[in-house]
């Protein structure tokens, strides 16, 4: 959907939007290598409430916080697997509008190409913003993969319908992998390089680790 269009109200309407916008995803660009500002995006859910909090933290090349923003609002779409973007996008887009530092790369807590319709949150965000976007998830969602070797930087392809849709990437020695997929305007090799660049100390990339913390703040 384009920004400003009526928000989908049903699963069928949302799936139609995904099918329509999927052709706009750019997966052949290498994407940025040297990145000045990287934004992490995550959404927090209030307990026993329809309120969602979109949180964004922008880090510089040394992984220092240079900007952050949140937006809290009532969810506009039900909780349906494969359609989480329609629940999370409004607050994330509002938070993006509140930033004073423009990011060069988005890393979101979610999926991109590794999605039943090849159009997860990272793809949707990339198409709407035009920014290079990567999806990084904590758990597997679709497809199958072998267990990567134990060392940091090891990976195994995620295969869905005989197609590579992402990688299970080990960001720490002997720690569970994260699940990386292209969103928009970034190659899979480059996406994994950025994930490793932003994980100097923890399993999750620092931008989304900090965004997760911000989304749960009072």
Number of strands: 8
Task: State the strand order across the main sheet.
Answer: 3-2-1-4-5-8-7-6
| Fraction of residues in H or I helices | 10-25%
The SS-based structural class is alpha+beta
Averaging pLDDT over every residue, what do you get? Answer: 93
Radius of gyration: 16 Å
Succession of helices and strands: HEEEHEHEEEEHH
Strand content bin:
25-35%
Q: How many distinct helices?
A: 5
TL;DR of this structure?
This protein has 218 residues and is α+β, with helices and mostly antiparallel strands. It has helices spanning 11-21, 85-97, 121-129, 188-197, 206-215; strands spanning 38-45, 51-59, 65-74, 105-109, 133-137, 155-160, 163-169, 178-184.
What does this structure look like?
This protein is α+β, with helices and mostly antiparallel strands. It has 5 helices and 8 strands. The chain has helices at 11-21, 85-97, 121-129, 188-197, 206-215; strands at residues 38-45, 51-59, 65-74, 105-109, 133-137, 155-160, 163-169, 178-184. It has an 8-stranded mixed β-sheet with strand order 3-2-1-4-5-8-7-6, with helices on both faces. Strand 4, helix 3 (121-129) and strand 5 form a beta-alpha-beta unit. It is globular, with a radius of gyration of 16 Å. The two termini are 32 Å apart. The mean pLDDT is 93.
